[in-house]
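A further point concerns the way the authors explain their paired sequence and structure data. An entry of this sort, consisting of the sequence and the corresponding C-alpha cells, reads as follows:
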Amino acid sequence: MLIHRLMLNDEIRAVESHLDDYAIKHVRKLNQGEVILTSVNLLHNMFIHVRKSPRTQHNDTPQL
C-alpha cells in the first residue's frame, strides 16, 4: 500500500492498522512526492521520495 499525505481523521483511521506509531505521526507531514510504502510482507515501513521525471510525455491526453 502506498500512503501519501492524509489530512482527515477518517482517512488516517482507515490505514492506521497498517502503520506503526512513527509513520502515523508523519502521515500528515508528507510533502509532494513523498509516500510511505507498507505491506504485510515488509518488516518495516519504507519512506519513499519520488522525483518528477524530466521526460516529456507524448500523448493525446488533454490537460485540465
